[in-house]
């Protein structure tokens, strides 16, 4: 057999912006370094390697030795580097200017650092739309790798996938490599000789074939069970040895060498899509279940090998519909990107160029794809990844405020369709806080940015049905959890990181945001409310009418809704204000009118506070007397008082809620049950705080209360809290 069959091994290493250092170090020890170690023993094995920019930045700071070793492999030609958008955004989720900018800047960085041309690019999650071709060409990209499913959806048969194609935009060409799904499932799970046999069968049928594998590097050592299989038990060494033994006919090579020496198979235009699993995850949850059930039946049909190529599931952009929290990050990012582009036009002189560059770096980091979707792994469900996105968005926005000269205390109110729902939202801003209100969605506050600590206190996540919840319920009886916290169902191989997760499955009926208005059944208990019971009004999600008022030092939004309390009508008017003299506070006034007389009424206002770790001892709740009452994942029903608060010493933030009328406070955690690489787990998403009042309406049918939400981020205050806590761990006195 002639030396004409090529095998391309493309490895993609990525760690999200904001991931924990110990997680990245674990990946280095189990996957990134071991691969380089083995490549040193097999110098004839060439690899195409993509390290995302977020990972490279971390490695340069924490593991510079990896960078030096990588440079040596690049210099001797054993590793070809792929570029791509710097911080691994989904290209469909960022504006064109940022697609070109991220990709061009990463190409320039890699070429400067490694002194080698970077001609190809990795497409994050292989999410493709044909319009991306022009953007990639403009960024200097010559070829990319996508899944062979993209090509089959374009009508290309399996027999015509053993090479590469080109596409064009306005006459400019981009080469496209089809990554083999078959190889993706064989490596590293099949015996190396089975993989070689697959390559041999292709080679015999298609002389001169090019086979391309492309997948995550973490599956070779980091994924559960993979370290023992790939390295301890020697799978990778046996695979490389088998490739060496077959070198007389199977050439392990790079994409660059292939493009220089092999002609393309032809031209194609690929339909929008991604890899098969991603397109399934993008479906609404119930439709995803229906799709899986249907596919399980159809795959048994004798015509399925022919029909399967034409069956497609969802579309990536519908994650923005499936998860409103994704849309909130996405639209906030779009707003910062647009503002930055405008400021680059206005202030692109030497005085501001460094600040603009720093703002763009923050924007690019905030576009990292991982928390913008959810599939087999945590993604959106991981608070630290969402927090990282918001942290960089808030940082970029603050830099733009400073460029615009907003360095003194200021307040501002603006109106726009901030979340792209075709309805107007309101933004109240000061030099300390930025709040976003959605009158059409219960008049809720859906984002609250704290500038000093670059934190969105409303980066919350609702509990909602996911298709894998069926599996949790099915395995609940047979699964067990070990003393170390992990467990596996012996029948289905399902891992549980906590016991009793099936009992934690619960789904929210309204958005877990703040200023969520509830009329409740009189005498309702906190446990019933936490289960979603006892709501008798239609204000939590109903549309409010809104106006804004402004002066030089004071801004406010006034929202009003005529709705129902059971069979009775009522009116809720709420006024949310910021004042220049108190930029770290939000003043809130509720005015209830047209209330039914001679009936017991129960009214509550729900707040949620997110991004504060649930069980850590230095994140805790305190009552009206300043006493610590427990961690943020504890449940309480506090007797009537006028205030309570939450502290996160690690962030350096103290959130205090005061009321003019004594209220009982319900406090409860909002926790999701989600899937991650390590198995099913319970994740603390937010702490819900509900001041509520039971009363009879006065004779005029009117009732009112004022609340003050104050946020303290002073370093001295945080230090004082820490020292006081060390002296008196059970209770403390706070000065707010």
TrEMBL record:
<dbReference type="InterPro" id="IPR011013">
    <property type="entry name" value="Gal_mutarotase_sf_dom"/>
</dbReference>
<dbReference type="Pfam" id="PF09095">
    <property type="entry name" value="AmyA-gluTrfs_C"/>
</dbReference>
<dbReference type="InterPro" id="IPR040042">
    <property type="entry name" value="Branching_enz_MT3115-like"/>
</dbReference>
<comment type="similarity">
    <text>Belongs to the glycosyl hydrolase 57 family.</text>
</comment>
<dbReference type="GO" id="GO:0005576">
    <property type="term" value="C:extracellular region"/>
</dbReference>
<feature type="domain" description="Alpha-amylase/4-alpha-glucanotransferase C-terminal">
    <location>
        <begin position="417"/>
        <end position="707"/>
    </location>
</feature>
<feature type="domain" description="Glycoside hydrolase family 57 N-terminal">
    <location>
        <begin position="8"/>
        <end position="270"/>
    </location>
</feature>
<dbReference type="GO" id="GO:0030246">
    <property type="term" value="F:carbohydrate binding"/>
</dbReference>
<dbReference type="GO" id="GO:0030979">
    <property type="term" value="P:alpha-glucan biosynthetic process"/>
</dbReference>
<keyword id="KW-0119">Carbohydrate metabolism</keyword>
<dbReference type="InterPro" id="IPR015179">
    <property type="entry name" value="A-amylase/a-glucTrfase_C"/>
</dbReference>
<dbReference type="Pfam" id="PF09094">
    <property type="entry name" value="AmyA-A_glucT_m"/>
</dbReference>
<protein>
    <submittedName>
        <fullName>Alpha-amylase</fullName>
    </submittedName>
</protein>
<dbReference type="GO" id="GO:0003844">
    <property type="term" value="F:1,4-alpha-glucan branching enzyme activity"/>
</dbReference>
<dbReference type="InterPro" id="IPR004300">
    <property type="entry name" value="Glyco_hydro_57_N"/>
</dbReference>
<feature type="domain" description="Alpha-amylase/4-alpha-glucanotransferase central">
    <location>
        <begin position="314"/>
        <end position="398"/>
    </location>
</feature>
<dbReference type="InterPro" id="IPR011330">
    <property type="entry name" value="Glyco_hydro/deAcase_b/a-brl"/>
</dbReference>
<dbReference type="InterPro" id="IPR015178">
    <property type="entry name" value="A-amylase/a-glucTrfase_central"/>
</dbReference>
<dbReference type="InterPro" id="IPR028995">
    <property type="entry name" value="Glyco_hydro_57/38_cen_sf"/>
</dbReference>
<dbReference type="InterPro" id="IPR014718">
    <property type="entry name" value="GH-type_carb-bd"/>
</dbReference>
<dbReference type="Pfam" id="PF03065">
    <property type="entry name" value="Glyco_hydro_57"/>
</dbReference>
């Amino acid at each position: 057999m002639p030396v004409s069959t090529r095998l391309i091994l493309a490895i993609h290493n990525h760690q999200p912006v904001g991931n924990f250092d110990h997680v990245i170090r674990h990946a280095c020890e189990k996957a990134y370094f071991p691969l380089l170690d083995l490549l040193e023993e097999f110098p004839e094995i060439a690899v195409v390697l993509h390290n995302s920019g977020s990972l490279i930045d971390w490695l340069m700071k924490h593991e510079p030795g990896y960078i030096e070793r990588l440079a040596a492999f690049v210099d001797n030609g054993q590793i070809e580097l792929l570029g791509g958008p710097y911080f691994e955004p989904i290209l469909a989720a960022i504006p064109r200017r940022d697609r070109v900018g991220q990709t061009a800047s990463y190409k320039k960085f890699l070429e400067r650092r490694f002194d080698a041309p970077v001609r190809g690019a990795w497409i994050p999650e292989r999410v493709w739309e044909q319009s991306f071709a022009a953007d990639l060409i403009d960024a200097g990209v010559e070829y990319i790798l996508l899944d062979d499913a993209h090509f089959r959806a374009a009508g290309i048969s399996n027999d015509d996938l053993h090479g590469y194609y080109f596409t064009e935009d306005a006459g400019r060409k981009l080469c496209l490599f089809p990554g083999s799904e078959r190889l993706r499932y064989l490596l590293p799970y099949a015996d190396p000789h089975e993989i070689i046999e697959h390559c041999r069968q292709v080679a015999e049928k298609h002389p001169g074939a090019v086979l391309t594998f492309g997948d995550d590097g973490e599956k070779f050592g980091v994924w559960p069970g993979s370290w023992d299989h790939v390295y301890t038990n020697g799978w990778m060494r046996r695979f490389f040895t088998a490739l060496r033994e077959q070198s007389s006919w199977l050439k392990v090579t790079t994409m660059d060498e292939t493009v220089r020496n092999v002609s393309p198979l032809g031209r194609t235009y690929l339909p929008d899509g991604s890899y098969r699993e991603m397109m399934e995850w993008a479906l609404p949850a119930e439709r995803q279940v229906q799709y899986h059930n249907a596919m399980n039946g159809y795959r048994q049909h004798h015509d399925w090998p022919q029909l399967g190529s034409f069956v497609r599931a969802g579309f990536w952009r519908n994650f923005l519909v499936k998860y409103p929290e994704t849309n909130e990050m996405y639209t906030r990012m779009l707003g910062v990107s647009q503002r930055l582009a405008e400021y680059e036009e206005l202030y692109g002189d030497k005085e501001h160029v460094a600040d603009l560059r720093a703002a763009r770096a923050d924007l690019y980091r905030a576009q990292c794809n991982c928390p913008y979707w959810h599939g087999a792994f945590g993604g959106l469900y991981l608070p630290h990844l969402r927090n990282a996105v918001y942290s960089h968005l808030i940082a970029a926005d603050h830099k733009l405020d400073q460029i615009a000269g907003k360095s003194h205390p200021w307040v501002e109110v603006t109106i726009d369709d901030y979340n792209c729902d075709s309805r107007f939202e309101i933004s109240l801003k000061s030099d300390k806080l930025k709040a976003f209100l959605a009158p059409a969605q219960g008049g809720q506050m859906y984002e609250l940015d704290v500038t000093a600590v670059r934190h969105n206190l409303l980066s919350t996540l609702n509990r909602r049905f996911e298709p894998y919840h069926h599996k949790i319920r099915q395995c609940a009886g047979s699964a067990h959890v070990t003393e170390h916290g992990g467990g596996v169902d012996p029948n289905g191989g399902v891992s549980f990181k906590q016991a009793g997760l099936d009992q934690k499955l619960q789904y929210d009926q309204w958005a877990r945001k703040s200023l969520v208005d509830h009329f409740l059944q009189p005498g309702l208990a906190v446990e019933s409310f936490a289960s979603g019971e006892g709501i008798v009004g239609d204000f939590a999600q109903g549309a409010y009418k809104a106006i804004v008022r402004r002066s030089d030092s004071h801004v406010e939004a006034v929202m009003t809704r005529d709705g129902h309390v059971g069979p009775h009508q009522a009116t809720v008017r709420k006024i949310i204000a910021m004042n220049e003299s108190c930029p770290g506070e939000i003043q809130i006034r509720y005015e209830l009118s047209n209330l039914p007389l001679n009936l017991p009424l129960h009214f509550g206002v729900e707040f949620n506070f997110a991004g504060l770790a649930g069980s850590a001892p230095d994140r805790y709740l305190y009552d009206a007397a300043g006493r610590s009452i427990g961690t943020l994942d504890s449940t309480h029903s506090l007797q009537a008082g006028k205030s309570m608060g939450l502290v996160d010493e690690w962030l350096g933030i103290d959130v205090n809620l005061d009321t003019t009328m004594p209220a009982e406070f319900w406090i409860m955690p909002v926790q999701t049950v989600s899937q991650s690489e390590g198995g099913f787990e319970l994740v603390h998403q937010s702490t819900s705080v509900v001041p509520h009042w039971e009363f009879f309406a006065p004779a005029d049918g009117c009732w009112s209360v004022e609340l003050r939400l104050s946020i303290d981020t002073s370093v001295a205050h945080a230090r004082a809290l820490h020292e006081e806590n060390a002296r008196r761990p059970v209770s403390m006195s706070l000065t707010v």
